[in-house]
Write a structure and sequence with these properties.
Blueprint lengths: L5 H13 L8 H8 L4 H9 L6 H10 L4 H6 L12 H4 L4 H12 L2 H11 L1
Helix pairs in contact: 2-3
GO molecular function, one term: DNA binding
Protein name: Transcriptional regulator
Pfam families: Phage_CI_repr (PF07022)
Length: 119
């Protein structure tokens, strides 16, 4: 008997493969650590025994640069095409996150000065 969410699991594995996300035996642990879930939960996602909740599927789609509709349902292309919102799905690097956090901590007046200076 097939796993109830086998098709989702296949798409998730394909999305992970596209980005060379920890192949092989360490994949389950790496996925669990990245999304702060148990290894058992990550294993169930990867084997089709469980389906992540919608907010988590959205996060997975963004992190692995795949279309949300494709990941959730299998419909549509695997990734955004040229001219689509592919930049919205790209995960920020650690440096970009650090810069954005620092920017958000600035008072509004200093933010405006910095934007003006960079423009």
């Amino acid at each position: 008997m097939a796993a109830p969410y086998e098709h989702f699991a296949n798409r998730l594995r394909k999305a992970l493969d596209r980005t060379d996300f920890v192949p092989g035996r360490g994949r389950t642990s790496a996925l669990a650590a990245r999304y702060a879930v148990s290894r058992e939960t990550a294993r169930k996602w990867l084997t089709g025994l469980a389906l992540p909740e919608l907010p988590r599927i959205i996060e997975l789609a963004k992190d692995f640069d795949v279309n949300l509709e494709w990941l959730a349902t299998g419909r549509g292309p695997i990734a955004p095409g040229v001219g689509e919102a592919s930049a919205l799905y790209r995960r920020l690097s650690d440096n970009e996150n650090h810069l954005l956090d620092a920017f958000r901590k600035l008072p509004e007046s200093k933010r405006q000065l910095l934007v003006k200076f960079l423009s």
